[in-house]
Amino acid sequence: MSDEAGLPIAARFARAVRTVAAVPKDRVADTGSYKYRYTDLSDVLRVVKTALELHNLVLVQPVHTDTDKMLVVDTCVYDLDTGESLCFPGIGVPVKSD
């Protein structure tokens, strides 16, 4: 168990979020008429997951369809010490049926 065992998951999550480092915009996209710098999503997830792991938390993003047949990606954080979870519902995106 981590040294934060006994703290509510929301408190542990808040502590983890405070340790998330800025992710550099180290990728370059060239549209032909202009260039811009961006951060790759996999780099963002790596930084976030590392910060959560330091607090014995894990991130999962289950995908499902809601009652309106919209595709939704939720974001859930699980406490490995207690089994508690925090889930943040995603925004529904229409799914083509073709």
- SS-based class: alpha+beta
Strand content: 25-35%
Overall spatial form? flat
- What are the segments in which pLDDT stays under 50 over at least 5 consecutive residues? none
Radius of gyration: 17 Å
Q: Could you tell me how far the N terminus lies from the C terminus, measured between alpha carbons in angstroms?
A: 48 Å
**Total count of helical runs of at least 4 residues:** 2
User: How are the strands of the biggest sheet laid out side by side?
Assistant: 3-6-7
Integer average pLDDT: 90
Q: Say how many strands there are.
A: 8
Helix content: 10-25%
Q: How would you characterize the largest beta sheet?
A: 3 strands, antiparallel
Q: What is the N-to-C order of secondary-structure elements (H for helix, E for strand)?
A: HEEHEEEEEE
Q: In terms of topology, how is this protein built?
A:
Layout lengths: L8 H10 L8 E4 L4 E4 L2 H13 L3 E4 L2 E3 L4 E4 L1 E5 L5 E4 L4 E2 L4
Antiparallel strand pairs: 1-2, 3-6, 4-5, 5-8, 6-7
Quickly list its features.
3-stranded antiparallel β-sheet; 31% strand; 98 residues; flat; alpha+beta; 2 helices
In short:
With 98 residues, this protein is an alpha+beta fold.
Can you walk through the features of this model?
The chain has 98 residues and is α+β, with helices and mostly antiparallel strands. It is built from two helices and eight strands. It has helices at 9-18, 41-53; strands at residues 27-30, 35-38, 57-60, 63-65, 70-73, 75-79, 85-88, 93-94. The N and C termini lie far apart (48 Å).
